Structure of Nitrate/nitrite response regulator protein:
Amino acid sequence: MADEVQSILVIDDHPLMRKGILQLIAMAPDLRLAGEAGDGVSGLKMACQLLPDLILLDLNMHGLSGMDTLKALKAADLDARVIILTISDSEEDVVEALRLGADGYLLKDMEPEDVLHALQVAASGQIALSERVASILAAALRHENQAKSPVSIKLTEREQAILSLIATGYSNKLIARKLKITEGTVKVHVKHLLRKLDLSSRVEAAVWAIKNQDFSKGHFEG
């Protein structure tokens, strides 16, 4: 996965929380602090200036909310993975954040070493979800009608390969490298397979694929 040191921008309006995160980052030789911001507006500006590899974002902030900051970061089309770090484990927040394009969702009550490990997982290009959040997302998909049944889906061989890599936790950039295609081509395939699955985000697609892993091993139609 990632061989170089990954830079992180921390956006959180709690100074004590930021200090703790900075101490964690300092413990990891493969991570370095790009900058820190105490609000969404400043964080968005810094993200565009610093171009970090990772952005660690709180949801509950004064002024521009975490959700609105996430929307703005994604609209800016930055080549950065945005990881939510919040106290909220509500299904509504989890689902909304991931559908807005968050690349991970962590909870502030996690053990520090688990947060650090999750950041390193995210830095390597994989999806970072706390165990409780993964269960919440799986339950949300299970209770919704929008996720199609496996037997009704017809994915191409390339879409099947990409979905499998998404489920493994690969980012678009790593999928492109693995399949020897451009990142733009990967994005097009991801868009198509999400439409076929009636899902809104790659994280939902990963959960769907894991839930249907027996089917996905050989029953997609090309």
About this structure: Residues 8 and 137 are 25 Å apart (CA to CA). Residues 214-222 have pLDDT under 50 and may be disordered.
